[in-house]
DNA sequence: TATTCGTGGTG
DNA sequence: TCACCAAGAAT
């Protein structure tokens, strides 16, 4: 049913005043609120009273799945519990905690944002969406989300979920034009319930925004929506998937990296390349040294993996060169033994007969040996992290036991 | 306004 | 397997 060319909504839908709806907005939001009260997931950033934590959660959640964010959010808050702590941190340390989450600009903006808040707002987040919008990395959605959730402002937060829910309810096709977005914004705003009374501790606007997103994430899903479980199905024109625009086609590329290992005294080191600060992609982050494809022609990689970045699939080949005695590749099941083995290293072993080392497509200043035991503290790219873990050089983090039932 | 930013789960 | 796309923002 989807996959058709989008048509603009009718003219009268973009009116400036409150849009005419085929149902009562108060009834809609009441149904939604009741559903949310009984179906809200228990997430770490819910029921907290720290605007900084709400801010952090909203930045992390940008284009990132809830399940992915949960652990990182807790870890980040422990390391940087306040605006001040974050503002005073080194960017590399912030990036290290963000490693693997992607969209690293978010981490840099958040870091700069904390410094901005410390300087301009005395370390306390501004309380209005208008002022929040001035923070680096905070756009319309995030400003509205923080203002409504942390400060109970009556403003609609419109993310991909909300957009999809409203389009389906009204039977509108996907349309990202300015006019269509303004129309959708009007509708979204008209659905946000007001505060009950100045004395009530409840937060109808914040709960409503979260409920709309929750509905989109768990019921009104992009494909195969669960309309039988939907609290607002009776208001819905579509009751199923709506018309969406076609996506860009996926490209693919083959790339190669060097995994060079050496020993220094009792420690083992791996060679990493620091990406240039001017790079638009993952600036200042550490990766495995890149190899030109010509250098590895005819060679068989020690490890192959696939890694996709937005609309490009990378077929990644890893070529290992290591000091004598260091296994080039290990079974992930024996990682602990492998590390024990590496600690008992032969002094002064080094990669002296390397063929690929001189072929690295990077300047020597950007290359540095790093102790494998400290890799978790470094701002590694997701791909580097994945390659280092799969090859047994970097310890795979233990799954957390929090939230699991106790052992009998 | 259209692109560019990462990564991983999912059907 | 593979296309899809997630609590968007900046440029």
UniProtKB/TrEMBL annotation:
Molecular-function GO terms, alphabetical: hydrolase activity, acting on glycosyl bonds
Main enzyme class: hydrolase
EC number: 3.2.2.-
Ranges in coiled-coil conformation: none
Keywords: 4Fe-4S, DNA damage, DNA repair, Glycosidase, Hydrolase, Iron, Iron-sulfur, Metal-binding
Residues covered by the HhH-GPD domain: 60-218
Cofactor(s) it depends on: [4Fe-4S] cluster
Family: Belongs to the Nth/MutY family.
Function as written in the Swiss-Prot or TrEMBL entry: Adenine glycosylase active on G-A mispairs. MutY also corrects error-prone DNA synthesis past GO lesions which are due to the oxidatively damaged form of guanine: 7,8-dihydro-8-oxoguanine (8-oxo-dGTP).
Protein name: A/G-specific adenine glycosylase
Native species: Granulicella cerasi
């Amino acid at each position: 049913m989807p996959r058709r060319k989008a048509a603009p909504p009718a003219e009268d839908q973009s009116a400036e005043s409150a849009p005419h709806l085929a149902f009562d907005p108060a009834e809609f939001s009441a149904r939604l609120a009741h559903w949310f009260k009984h179906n809200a997931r228990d997430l770490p950033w819910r029921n907290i009273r720290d605007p900084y934590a709400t801010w952090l959660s909203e930045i992390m959640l940008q284009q990132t799945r809830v399940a992915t964010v949960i652990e990182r959010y807790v870890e980040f808050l422990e390391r940087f519990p306040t605006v001040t702590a974050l503002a005073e941190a080194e960017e590399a340390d912030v990036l290290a905690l963000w490693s693997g989450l992607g969209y690293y600009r978010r981490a840099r903006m958040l870091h700069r944002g904390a410094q901005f808040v410390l300087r301009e707002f005395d370390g306390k987040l501004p309380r209005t969406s208008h002022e929040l919008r001035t923070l680096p990395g905070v756009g319309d959605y995030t400003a509205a989300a923080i203002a409504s959730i942390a400060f109970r402002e009556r403003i609609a937060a419109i993310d991909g979920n909300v957009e999809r829910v409203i389009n389906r309810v009204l039977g509108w096709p996907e349309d990202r034009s300015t006019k269509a977005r303004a129309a959708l914004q009007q509708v979204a705003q008209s659905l946000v319930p007001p505060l009950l009374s100045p004395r009530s501790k409840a937060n109808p606007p914040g709960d409503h925004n979260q409920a709309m997103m929750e509905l989109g994430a768990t019921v009104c899903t992009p494909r195969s929506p669960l309309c039988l479980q939907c609290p607002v199905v009776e208001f819905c024109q579509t009751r199923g998937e709506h018309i969406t625009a076609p996506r860009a086609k996926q490209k693919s590329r083959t790339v190669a990296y060097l995994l060079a290992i050496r020993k220094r005294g009792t420690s083992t080191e791996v060679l990493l390349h620091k990406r240039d600060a001017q790079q638009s992609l993952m600036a200042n982050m550490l990766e495995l040294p890149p190899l030109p494809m010509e250098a590895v022609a005819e060679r068989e990689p020690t490890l192959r993996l696939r890694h996709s970045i937005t609309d490009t699939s990378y077929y990644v080949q890893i070529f290992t060169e290591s000091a004598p005695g260091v296994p080039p590749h290990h079974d992930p099941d024996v990682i602990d033994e492998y590390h024990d083995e590496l600690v008992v290293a032969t002094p002064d072993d080094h990669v002296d007969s390397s063929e690929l080392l001189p072929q690295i497509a990077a300047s020597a200043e950007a290359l540095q040996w790093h102790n494998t035991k400290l890799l978790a503290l470094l701002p590694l790219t997701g791909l580097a992290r994945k390659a280092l873990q799969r090859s047994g050089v970097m310890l795979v983090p233990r799954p957390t036991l929090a939230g699991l039932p106790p052992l009998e």
